[in-house]
Automatic annotation (TrEMBL):
Keywords: Calcium, Disulfide bond, Glycoprotein, Metal-binding, Signal. CDD domains: PAN_AP_HGF. It comes from the Eukaryota. Disulfide bonds join 181-240. Its cofactor is Ca(2+). Residues 1-18 form the signal peptide. PANTHER family: LAMININ G DOMAIN-CONTAINING PROTEIN, PENTRAXIN. Gene3D superfamilies: 2.60.120.200, 3.30.750.130, Hepatocyte Growth Factor. This is Apple domain-containing protein.
Length: 361
């Protein structure tokens, strides 16, 4: 019977040890997860069998006394309780193995799947293949929250129609300053992004882009406008608006760049109890929508803060499309529930919103 020292010698002689990560170990075997068992000449051949069957093969057990190889479909990270002592076995994982979700060819079924396989590299963008009707796609996985994707979704406004809107009754502090940010993608030129109405202000906050590229940004019924161009390129864009009572200045940012600054100051307080509508302009609170102004396209990750975040923060926010982009928000994307969705709007789980630099191989 082989000793642990003999097994180490076998591994070292076959040069597999150099390709094993620190999760590998002699005198150990992962029990109950072998999808293929076969005789081999040595440990190196066992390793090559596993390597050639990636990504299905996540780890292996090699038994030195019988020269037997087991290929496992999980690792010790996801099933630590199944790692058992065995004096004649070696368990190892290749440090070079392709990790689940890192490439299109090894797309995971979910963010939780990546965690369970022990392939998470932390919060970031991963390839998923969550259904049979869509090609693999890239999405942001919040691994800190255990791969929870409840805040990761897109709203797809399928046509221009006054019956298509998303409604939220608000209840946050009165606003003496704010930042509102969202991501959008469209093939249309004229777009109404959002309107926030309160009792004294029908347009407490309103963002509208005309077909000529004229952007109208209203705060407490006062309008700041200017030409920003149109964005019908089917590409995700980042939109932010800010205002603060202390200086009265209104600013509009698109893709991190300041496109509009008010030429007059606006002072006052915006009530925190009102109605927020995505995709329509409220000419009266909660209604009187105009067909030509309705939003068509996709929208994601809308957040509101009760402070002016400033240019540098907004520039950073525009670099990555993800949930919970900056702390301190008073309204988050997941506040928009199924109950508030009206008309021909689809909620797509696992957001497809990403920038060019978020794309993976």
């Amino acid at each position: 019977m082989f000793s642990v020292a003999a097994i180490v010698a076998i591994i070292t002689g076959s040069q597999v040890l150099a390709e094993c990560d620190i999760k590998s170990g002699t005198g150990l075997a992962l029990i109950g997860h072998a999808y293929l068992s076969l005789p081999v000449q040595d440990a190196h051949q066992c390793y090559e069998k596993c390597k050639s069957d990636e990504p299905k093969c996540r780890s292996l057990n090699y038994y030195g006394d019988s020269k037997f190889c087991e290929l496992n479909n999980v690792t010790r990270t996801s099933h630590p309780g199944d790692l058992k002592e065995n004096p004649v076995s070696v368990y190892f994982e290749s440090r070079y193995r392709v990790t689940t979700g890192s490439q299109r060819s090894v797309a995971a079924s979910s963010c939780q799947d990546i965690l369970q396989r022990g392939d998470s590299t932390g919060n970031g963008f991963y390839w998923l293949d969550s259904n049979s009707t869509e090609d693999p796609y890239v999405t942001f996985c919040n691994m800190t929250s255990g791969g929870d994707t409840s805040a990761s979704f897109d709203l797809i406004f399928k046509d221009r129609n006054t019956s298509n809107y998303v409604e939220l009754e608000t209840s946050f502090p009165n606003l003496s300053s704010f930042t509102v940010c969202l991501w959008f993608k469209s093939m249309e030129r004229q777009l109404l992004f959002l309107s926030y109405a309160t009792e004294p202000f029908t347009d407490a906050i309103m963002m509208f882009l005309s077909s000529t590229g004229l952007f109208r940004f209203l705060v407490m019924n006062e309008q700041t406008h200017g030409h920003t161009g149109t964005f019908e390129d089917k590409t995700w864009h980042h939109l932010c608006g800010t205002w603060a009572n202390h200086d009265g200045v209104v600013r509009l940012f698109i893709d991190g760049d300041c496109k509009l600054t008010s030429d007059r100051t606006i002072h006052g307080v915006i009530p925190g109890t009102g109605k927020l509508i995505l995709g329509q302009d409220q000419d009266i609170m909660g209604g009187a929508f105009v067909y030509q102004q309705s939003f068509v396209g996709e929208m994601s990750h809308l957040y509101i803060w009760n402070t002016d975040l400033g240019t540098s923060v907004i520039s950073t926010l525009s670099m990555h499309c993800k949930e919970h982009p900056y702390p301190g928000y008073i309204m988050k994307w997941s506040d928009f529930t199924e109950a508030g969705i009206h008309g021909n709007i689809t909620k797509r789980n696992n957001s497809r919103c990403l920038t060019a630099q978020d794309m993976l191989p």
